[in-house]
Amino acid sequence: MENQDMQDNKVAAQFRPDLARWRQLVAPAWLAMLIDGAPVDARPSADWRLLEVGCGGAAPFEHGHIPGAAYIDSGQFECEPLWNKVDDQVLLDLLLAHGVRHETTVILYGRNNLAAARLAHLLLYAGVDDVRLLDGGFASWQAAGHACARGAVGPAGRPAAAGFGAAFPAHPEYLIGTSQARALLSTADGALVSIRSEAEFLGKVSGYSYIAARGDIPGARWGRAGADGDVNSMSAYHLADGRMKPAAEIALQWRRQGIVEGLQIGFYCGTGWRASMAFFYAWLMGWPRISVYDGGWLEWSGADFVRLTEIKGGAGRDANVGAFPREAPSCMF
């Protein structure tokens, strides 16, 4: 078993023994050693890329970033009006421009690590074999006192790839649309899981300035997210320093809402970022049959009629809510 192999190895001090895919969540110290060319356990392929994923421009990246990183903005892999994944060909062209093939190891981080998780999910959907996330994101790198570089580093810093080298996308099952999300609600072993704050799930707020409709999908299970009023918060999943909570704690909070390993699960949030973080953590934990409902509440609430649901022992109170105005946000979460 992979977990046992890791526990018997000296690498246990740098990786998480509670994760089935323990290589895929990396610590700042390990990344610093890799960048410096020092020997590291669980070393990635010789062809590896370090990418910072941001939103709304590269100015913070240019001011200071992890050495050797290139920058990708979320606007390159999401599109209006629903901020869903771009067309497959556009996503493929983006990966090739950054020199990413299916066998390339891609290490991701963000100032908001939700952005990195969003791209991590899409890389897994595409079929990149080795996708890794810096636990705690850029904040954890800074907190550990590691050096930063300045200036712009883009895909031109590495040669573009001529081809992906495998079928694309390799894992279309990792991403579902509205019809598939609706089908999960009537599937005996299916669960549509809302990764939103309590106030959003109860319909007290929409959570977004550009989504008018308040409420949630009837029949969805509440997977939790973070603090009310903050769509950047995934505090239910993170320690105080922003690192992932122990897998057992996450599994317990899901189990209390009827979300258990083995179900056919579709995670969603407002537009995909928080859902992608939940998906990636479930993937790290080795959960099978998981996906992200890309459209989320933004797409679902654009239907002619939706219902407001509340958490009350599994039963909900229904009310009509209106459609949303399709104004473009300045930055997606």
Task: Give an overview in words.
The structure is a single chain. By secondary structure, the chain is an alpha/beta fold. It has helices spanning 2-7, 28-36, 59-63, 88-97, 113-126, 137-143, 178-185, 198-201, 247-255, 273-284, 296-300, and strands spanning 25-26, 48-54, 70-73, 78-79, 84-85, 105-109, 130-134, 175-176, 190-194, 221-222, 264-268, 290-293, 306-307, 320-321. The strands form four sheets. It has a five-stranded parallel beta sheet with strand order 1-7-6-2-3. A five-stranded parallel beta sheet has the order 8-12-11-9-10, with helices on both faces. Strand 2, helix 3 (59-63) and strand 3 (70-73) form a beta-alpha-beta unit. Mean pLDDT is 87; it is low at 1-12 and 304-333.
Brief sketch in words of this structure:
By secondary structure, the chain is of the alpha/beta class.
Main features:
333 residues; globular; alpha/beta; 14 strands; 15% strand; 11 helices; disordered N terminus; five-stranded parallel beta sheet
SSE blueprint and pairings:
Elements: H1 2-7, E1 25-26, H2 28-36, E2 48-54, H3 59-63, E3 70-73, E4 78-79, E5 84-85, H4 88-97, E6 105-109, H5 113-126, E7 130-134, H6 137-143, E8 175-176, H7 178-185, E9 190-194, H8 198-201, E10 221-222, H9 247-255, E11 264-268, H10 273-284, E12 290-293, H11 296-300, E13 306-307, E14 320-321
Parallel strand pairs: 1-7, 2-3, 2-6, 6-7, 8-12, 9-10, 9-11, 11-12
Antiparallel strand pairs: 4-5, 13-14
Helix pairs in contact: 5-10
